[in-house]
Amino acid sequence: MRIALAQINSTVGDLVGNADKIVAFSRKAAGLGAEVAVFPELALNGYPPRDLVEKPSFIERTGVELERLAAETAALDLSIIVGYVGEADVSAGKRVTNSAAVIERGAVVFRQNKMLLPTYDVFDEMRYFQPADRQFLASIRGCKTALTICEDAWNDKQFWERRLYQRDPVEELANSGASCLISINASPYNMHKRELRREIFEIAAKRHGIPVVYVNQVGGNDQLVFDGSSFAMDGTGRVIGSARSFEEDLVIVDTTARAGDQHQDLNDECEAVYQALVLGTRDYIRKCGFSRVLIGLSGGIDSSLTAVVAADAVGRENVVGVAMPGPFSSEHSLTDARALAEFLGIRFEIVSINDAYGAFDRTLDPQFAGAAKDVTEENLQSRLRGVTLMALSNKWGALVLTTGNKSELAVGYCTLYGDMCGGLAVISDVPKTLVYKLSRVANGRHPGAIPESVFIKPPSAELHADQKDTDSLPDYEVLDGILKAYVEQMQAPAHIAEEQHVPLALVRDIVNKVDRNEYKRQQAAPGLKVTTKAFGIGRRFPIAQRFLE
Residue 513 catalytic? Predict the structure, then answer.
């Protein structure tokens, strides 16, 4: 078969717009001689639709758009496979299904419901969908096809040491005589996941001796970034076609000739993370209806990286950098911020918080009488900057991007209603050590944008004289190692201390900081997920609890 891998960027809830895009890609696929066009999981609805599936009107209009999609492609000599939210044909259980439809000559000729519904990390599908109790082979262009939906193909016993599910839909369909596997997906990006997918499907192709077609969603939807990276393999597991990562694409493969389009991909993982942040930022801003963004530029590495990502995401003409010097700000903070803004060509404003800080200090002096200055006055500076940015946001209709990284958010090295103010936390899942690597990627794309002085100066929030992050935190290389083991791998402090050769007392201090600051993180702006475990919808710890490591 000549199959088109139609890797599209759907917007959650935009049923009309998504259907229009599917029609357009279908026509293009037919024009290129494809016999089959394969679209991602829930391509018609966007993924994840979450509680939208609880609305009867959402389900009703999904059906209407599915029928329109079929009618508008009726003249095409093309079989179209598309994911959508279907209605469950059961008397008890959930009302809807995660489904795939095969459309030919203006009609839905086959439907397949997803069997394995994930509930780990960012997934919550059992909350919404009725699982299939069995699946059937689809006859597509005379080919007996195992048509699966994302998780259905992720339970191969030859890959996982401990499987999550008893059943393996791919194995069941292959044993029924499938001669091809087509898997439609909405698989979010995290570092190294692209290689993991290929490993899983290579094993499936070799095990069953059949060609594999894997089509994945691309784009940003809230906290999740989908990388696309669709591919096709022959029965030996050799890649015969591949789509680009982080952009829409259309790839034609011929499973009989065992050949297809090979589009250039991002091989370096830091380049991939950077592009994930750009795509996630762009789609969050545009899909939420904004066009302009505001960033507090401190002259530090975090705000510098955020600014470059923003400029790449929405264009330099739509980015405003605001420097807000305070009583302890260094001269290089202002000069480095200005140099970055001038190089990028973004608008640059300076709003001093000195007068406001002095006024608040005098106003609160009677209440603070006899108390030594401490973190209260430090946080006041950060909160004044937050107020300033939010005021400009209201006046200009621009979205504030926060600039805190994962390392800071983990241990609470951030201020509620201060530097945490904003609509999107662009690098909140990027550890500090990775921030420096991504900043080099940014400078590779925009040579000299981030001044070298920003890379070499000690990180500091500049909230009191001569402050450095290392006054209260270990070196970031040490901190990030501990955080990765604890947050992403759920390792116990004693194990971390032994494995990383660091004092147990230090590890316990760090993990207790992580646990104590859950209340802050749950009030933070949504952030873009790029690691295996982000502080967001995929991490659900209680705030009021007394379990200590």
Answer: no
> Whole-angstrom Cα distance, residue 60 to residue 78?
26
Start-to-end Cα distance in the chain: 56
The confidence score (pLDDT) of residue 338 equals: 95
Q: How many CB atoms lie within 10 A of CB 107?
A: 12
Distance CA 355, CA 530 (A): 40
The reply to whether 354 falls in a domain is yes
The active-site residue out of 143, 150, 180, 414 is: 150
Domains in the chain, number:
3
β-bridge partners, 107: 104
- Alpha helices for 254-374 (secondary structure H): 269-287, 301-314, 331-344, 354-364
State which residues form the domain around 371.
272-469+517-521
16 with 80, same domain?
A: yes
- From 21, 35, 41, 484, the catalytic residue: 41
Average pLDDT of every residue of the chain: 95
pLDDT for 120-144, tens place per residue? Answer: 999 999 999 999 999 999 999 999 9
424-442, pLDDT tens digit by residue?
999 999 999 999 999 999 9
Question: For residue 467, is pLDDT > 80?
Answer: no
- Of 50-59, 314-323, 448-457, 526-535, the range with the lowest mean pLDDT is 448-457
Domain final position from 237, 263, 289: 263
Flag whether 548 is in a domain.
Answer: no
Residue 91, pLDDT score: 86
Residues 393 and 488 in one domain: no
pLDDT one-digit tens code per residue, 316-371: 999 999 999 998 878 888 999 999 999 999 999 999 999 999 999 999 999 999 89
How far is residue 274's CA from residue 280's CA, in Å, rounded to a whole number?
10
Phi, psi (degrees; rounded to nearest 5) at 107:
-140, 150
- The DSSP secondary structure of 201-228, one letter per residue, reads HHHHHHHHT--EEEEE-EEEETTEEEEB
Structure tokens at 510: 């760090």
Alpha-carbon distance of 216 to 48, in angstroms, equals 13
CA dihedral 383→387→388→389, nearest 10 degrees, is 100
Eight-state DSSP code of residue 317:
G
**Distance, C-alpha 440 to centroid of its chain:** 21
Q: What is the DSSP letter of 419?
A: T
Looking at the predicted structure, is the pLDDT value of residue 464 above 90? Answer: no
> What is the rounded CA–CA span in Å between residue 292 and residue 286?
9
The single residue of 35, 65, 104, 114 carrying the catalytic annotation is 114
Pairwise pLDDT comparison (492 vs 156), residue with the higher score = 492
Catalytic annotation present for 150: yes
Following DSSP, what letter does each residue of 49-100 receive, concatenated? -GGGGG-HHHHHHHHHHHHHHHHHTTTSS-EEEEEEEEE---SSS-SEEEEE
Under DSSP, is residue 354 helix (H, G, I), strand (E, B) or coil? helix
User: Would you call 358 exposed, middle or buried from its count of C-beta atoms within 10 A (0-12, 13-18, 19+)?
Assistant: exposed
